[in-house]
């Protein structure tokens, strides 16, 4: 092979270095995305343009005036139903909070010890008695299709609590909390 | 064979509009051929079509209830809506009883409680009727009874979502707010008509059109009658001495009784008669601003108006609260000259820029020799 060092360039080393540094290294135009000279054979651009400009608009259902009115009425009625449900829930919660507040005020009058212990609360994590523990398999008694929650009518007589097999000797409270619902598989199930 | 007119499926409503707005006085009754379709009564046609309009009298629209039994979802929806309506009216009855139980005295606490109850009652009255398809149809077709809370609510809501933002945009863009009024928070929809056509705020008008005062419509949303003041002001009249602009009064009416059901400006005291807009030649466009103020101090006794007074001074003097505003723009036209001559009877001013001084020419206009050009200050 020829000896590389025997070849001499017209430019000196220092000038060649200078030139190399000043020439800006630019990407070939076909590589810059979005440019008009972009690689036309790349189908991604075609696909993107098609999606942007040529997808058909979704066809709206053609409704007469009467149809539209029917649709709007049904829509409003459904939304009203949901709104009423939500309001009922909110009112229940508000009532519960009020009762809680009143109970605390009453407790304050009774004495400092009970009141303070009630305010501090429990550091011990406790679960409600009726909470359903997740199980591997469904219950043996199956699904109770006739289950009905307690009615939220306060004027009706308060329903008795389901009997607790462990502590049957304890006296039942006279006014149960509204949301204390009987277990689905309870033999003493209460239907409203 | 009779020459039959081109048969197109024209819905009944369009036919009626043709009758109402385009009276064709040039129908040649000799050549008009009576087609069989024309002899059928209109009512039959309406029943055949899907329209909701009954036209016993031409032009009067009335809501036609959708028949039940076709769509079970619709039947259930109507049932639920009517049930909810009954519930709401029950609640309104309870609130009425509560209001009646209040004692006659009116101290601050009782006023507050009554206010809360009234607001709740208004809300219930709106909620009871707002889902009724008849009410919605009526509002859509502009058959509005402002004495009912529903329609007031719907109208206010519609105004606040559409026309109001547009008005505020135009008022701020055209600097009506800092120039004429310090601030504007409208609670009333002030509209004006020239030649029976509503004008959008900020549009240019021809001076001939505005020689006669516009028909003003003050859409307020309160039931009780309050007294309002209407003003029309031009803030863009040139003031040569101060090299600035001055305000010109065009119209002033006080003590106008306005409520939700009364929307015109009758019953007021016209203190300053309407002066037609007259933008002078050489000035840029003028903004003719209308303002509706609520009189917080009751009736205003005023015989004459000091035309040199500013709008802000006037407002402060009489304790007025700005409730609604709008404006239109005008520019000089040949007709303005005739307004100056006929209506105003004053000499028409023509404004222009002061002449530019060319320092390279001397007084006679000849080129000044360079050695005599002074250094320009």
Automatic annotation (TrEMBL), chain A:
Coiled coil: 83-110
Region listing for Disordered, in residue ranges: 135-192
InterPro entries linked: Ribosomal_mL40, Ribosomal_mL40_fung
Keywords, ordered alphabetically: Coiled coil, Mitochondrion, Ribonucleoprotein, Ribosomal protein, Transit peptide
Protein location: Mitochondrion
Keyword Cell membrane appears in the UniProt entry: no
Main location: mitochondrion
TM helices/strands, residue ranges: none
A Pfam family assignment: MRP-L28
Family per record: Belongs to the mitochondrion-specific ribosomal protein mL40 family.
Name this protein carries in UniProt: Large ribosomal subunit protein mL40
UniProt source species: Gigaspora margarita
Automatic annotation (TrEMBL), chain B:
Keywords, sorted A to Z: Coiled coil
Positions in coiled-coil regions: 85-120
Coiled coil recorded as keyword: yes
Source organism: Gigaspora margarita
Domain of life the protein comes from: Eukaryota
PANTHER family according to UniProt: PHOSPHATIDYLETHANOLAMINE-BINDING PROTEIN, PHOSPHATIDYLETHANOLAMINE-BINDING PROTEIN 4
Gene3D superfamilies in alphabetical order: 1.20.58.1180, PEBP-like
Protein name: PEBP-like protein
Pfam families recorded: PBP
């Amino acid at each position: 092979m020829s000896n590389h060092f025997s070849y001499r360039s017209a430019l000196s080393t220092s000038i060649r270095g200078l030139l190399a540094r000043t020439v800006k290294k630019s990407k070939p135009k076909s590589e810059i995305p979005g440019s008009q000279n972009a690689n036309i054979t790349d189908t991604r651009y075609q696909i993107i343009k098609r999606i942007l400009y040529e997808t058909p608009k979704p066809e709206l259902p053609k409704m007469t005036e009467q149809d539209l009115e029917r649709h709007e009425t049904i829509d409003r009625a459904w939304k009203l139903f949901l709104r009423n449900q939500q309001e009922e829930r909110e009112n229940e919660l508000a009532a519960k909070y009020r009762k809680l507040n009143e109970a605390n005020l009453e407790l304050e009058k009774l004495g400092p010890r009970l009141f303070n212990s009630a305010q501090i609360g429990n550091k011990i994590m406790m679960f409600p008695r009726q909470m359903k523990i997740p199980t591997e398999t469904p219950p043996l008694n199956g699904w109770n299709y006739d289950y009905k929650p307690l009615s939220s009518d306060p004027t009706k007589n308060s329903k008795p609590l389901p009997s607790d097999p462990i502590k049957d000797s304890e006296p039942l409270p006279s006014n149960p909390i509204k949301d204390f619902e009987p277990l689905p598989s309870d033999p003493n199930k209460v239907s409203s | 064979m009779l020459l039959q007119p081109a048969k197109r499926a024209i819905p009944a409503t369009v036919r009626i509009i043709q009758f109402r707005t385009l009276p064709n006085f040039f129908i040649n009754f000799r050549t008009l051929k009576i087609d069989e379709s024309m002899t059928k009564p209109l009512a039959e046609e309406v029943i055949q079509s899907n329209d909701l309009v009954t036209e016993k009298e031409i032009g009067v629209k009335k809501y036609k209830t959708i028949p039940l039994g076709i769509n079970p979802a619709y039947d259930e929806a109507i049932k639920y809506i009517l049930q909810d309506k009954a519930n709401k009216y029950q609640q309104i009855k309870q609130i009425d009883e509560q209001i009646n139980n209040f004692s006659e005295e009116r101290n601050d606490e009782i006023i507050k409680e009554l206010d809360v109850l009234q607001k709740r009652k208004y809300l219930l009255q709106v909620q009871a009727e707002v889902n009724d398809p008849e009410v919605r149809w009526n509002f859509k077709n502009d058959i509005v009874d402002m004495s009912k809370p529903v329609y007031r609510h719907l109208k206010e809501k519609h105004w606040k979502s559409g026309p109001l933002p547009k008005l505020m945009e135009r008022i701020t863009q055209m600097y009506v707010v800092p120039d004429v009024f310090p601030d504007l928070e409208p609670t009333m929809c002030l509209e004006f008509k020239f030649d029976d056509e509503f004008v959008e705020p900020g549009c240019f008008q021809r001076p001939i059109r505005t020689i006669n005062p516009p028909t003003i419509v003050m859409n307020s949303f309160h039931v009780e009658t309050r007294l309002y003041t209407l003003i029309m002001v031009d803030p863009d009249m040139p003031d040569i001495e101060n090299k600035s602009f001055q305000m010109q009064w065009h119209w002033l009416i006080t003590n106008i009784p306005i409520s939700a059901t009364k929307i015109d400006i009758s019953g007021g005291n016209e203190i300053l008669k309407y002066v037609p807009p007259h933008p002078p030649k050489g000035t840029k466009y003028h903004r003719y601003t209308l303002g509706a103020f609520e009189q917080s101090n009751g009736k205003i006794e005023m015989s004459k108006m000091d035309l040199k007074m500013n709008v802000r001074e006037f407002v402060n003097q009489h304790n007025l609260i700005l409730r609604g505003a709008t404006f239109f723009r005008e520019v000089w036209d040949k007709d303005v000259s005739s307004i100056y001559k006929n209506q105003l009877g004053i000499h028409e001013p023509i404004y222009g820029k002061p002449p530019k001084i060319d320092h390279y020419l001397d007084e006679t206009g000849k080129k000044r020799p360079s050695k005599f050009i002074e250094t320009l200050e």
